Please model this.
Amino acid sequence: MAVSTTAVQAAWRSRLARYYGIFTICFIIFCFILGGLELFAGLPTAVIGWTFLLLTMGLYATVGILSRTKILDEYYVAGRNVPAIFNGMATGADWMSAASFISMAGTLYALGYDGLAYIMGWTGGYVLLALLFAPYIRKFGQYTIPDFVGARFGGTRARVVAAVAAIIVSFTYVTAQVTGVGLIMSRFVGVPYQWGVVIGLSGVLVCSFLGGMKAVTWTQVAQYIILIIAYLIPVTFLAIKLTGIPIPQLAYGQALQNITALEEAQGITKAYVTPYNEALTNANAITAARGIGLTPPAPITNTDWLGTPWDFLALTLCLMLGTAGLPHILIRFYTVPSVRESRMSVGWALFFIFLLYFTAPAYAAFARWNILQNVVGSQVVVDQGVASFIDRATGQPANWVPQYVRTGLFNINDYSVLEGLSGDSLPAWAKDRIQAGTLVWNDANGDGVVQLGPFAPVDDTTGSAGELSGSSVTAASVDGILQFAELNINNDLIVLSTPEVANLPYTVAAIIAAGGLAAALSTADGLLVVIASAIAHDIYFRTLNPSATPQRRMFLGKSMIVVAAALAALAAMPNLALIARMVAWAFSLAAASFFPIILLGIFWKRANGAGAIAGIIGGLAVTIGYLTMVYINPNLAILGISDASAGIFGIPVNFLLVYIVSKMTAEPSKEIQELVDHLRHPQEDDELMTNLASG
Amino acid sequence: MSTQEDTTRKQRLEAYWRANIRLITTLLIIWFVVAYIPPLILPQLNSIVIGGFPLGYYMGSQGSLIVFVVLIFYYAWRMNRLDAEYGMRDRDK
Model:
């Protein structure tokens, strides 16, 4: 029996390896064919963009339709027969979102060392997942994380609290994915943002609607392959162009050295490899308040804690604990065949994630080096009505600038470009500064047009130039030479603009778009499954109507996927600044709610339901309280800890409350203590499990 | 007879769990040192430069990540062996 099962498993594994191997080779060949057609046959860029879009979306839909299912076990946990290595790839795609793919390299570009908190936090969390959670979750072997909380903490109340927490965390996150889908579609195939949201979501729906976790899993494996190829190709070309070495992860040491030298030469004080140089501000809160139509708080910048490592350490810890506590990642370990496979599977997951995460700092370093060396110091000009600069290689205005200025991703803030503009046609960044009071335009001759003159110093640093004055007017800001500080680059631009920066064909841009889309869609898929199962399985079936038929549960699950997707699309339509920030909060929230109670649930038998509920509620309350306070007024920060790291206060409160309240109330029932014993040993004992889970 | 069997089974399970906890503790200490000590002594580490990389920056961007991957695979390998040593049957599905 054991032998034949092993043989069946081995055959299944080699069949999967063959399918996905062929798929990988076909995708690479296809990329080269399109690239060749573009270079030698002049294939129009629109055709290339649409071909990639339709091909990849069609592929996901095909996998979704082939994996359609009516069996609950397949719908919720992919039939529990996903081999470790494939679950690793699926987890990688599930985990790496639009933020990892598009924004992370840009965050590192802007923050330097401080951005590495994300790199370490989002990978180190998998160590906790592997050592503390995955094998036990697999041994538990039900459908959802609220299932575990409900069974371990004995009751409906704990289950419902966990289900609600899972819905809140996942919904925040899925909204950000939908926003990412809209952005990619609008930029690369030219459809309006809102249409991009709708088209992208329909791709998600075909998958998760028809086949649930089974379809999502096999689509995610394909999406992982596409996204990792799409991430590695452009940065490898960039490394070859800048250093001649085709291994970017090794070659960027040279970039770091050049960055440091150039920064010193250009007098940039916020150096790239120097740590802890980010001041706390409430800039995002101001933008977010304006977006919703509330009165924004007064701008505050807190520099008291510059140079201290506390926020960096706190953020890293929150990201790690949050990663380990995110429901859509935890449920992936229900889908492997055994406890043994679950342990290996986390290893593979982190390995596949590592491939992208150790490449992102290389991407960032090359981008920073290129900007410091080839862009800073150029002559600022006005090209096609927007501020641009003269590309020193060609002697012409850089051809990629206008398209990115129009999408709001790139701005040059040198005041020389304002010359001759009327008051109404000033660019948004200049209007913002006038509103904030750092720039004053005094239309002395009353012609309604800005006139600059030679710079006249008023004090040591600031001065006036013709009709412009104010605290932001300095000699460098009006000289028509591009300074590093005058480059206003959106974080997303670093990955998106690589093809133009390295003069690569448009096909590479289309590959990046396909990769970003794969990253966003795969994460959205996984999250929709969590939301739908929390409602259909935990709240409806387990709590409200335990006698519901499997058909009814399946129908409700599928409807909830559509409802959740529609709500996410609605929430993403206005594209608010608040949403990006909410994703950062999701990790602190998951760390302060799920992590402590799952950990204690497995490793401390005495933890009981009352303790767990007190822990979740107390942990969330402290975290939400602190993050709201510091988000609005950074001066209230304790030890310089930012809103994104608020979980550092909620985590100990959660642990402490579980301990105190559990000690004060009765110990868990004998059955529950036996369940804990059962979880700890990878041995068959299915009868007890079934009784507890349904009880 | 059956009570004795029960006791030895219980002892075996407890010994297995203790071995697991020891392994987890050791690996978590390594995890903590790799992730949280370099940020505290960053200036000292950054004064050492290898292949163009300041060591502190390297630890944050690659070094710690490599250790994380190795830790997980080592745990999986070691635990799968412990299962065999302590006679844990794993279910196949």
Strands of chain B lie at 49-50, 53-54. Chain B has three helices and two strands. The interface with chain A takes residues 13, 16-17, 20, 24, 27-28, 31, 35-36, 39-40, 42, 46, 49-54, 56-58, 60-62, 64-66, 68-69, 71-73, 75-76, 79-80, 83, 88-93 of chain B (CB under 8 Å).
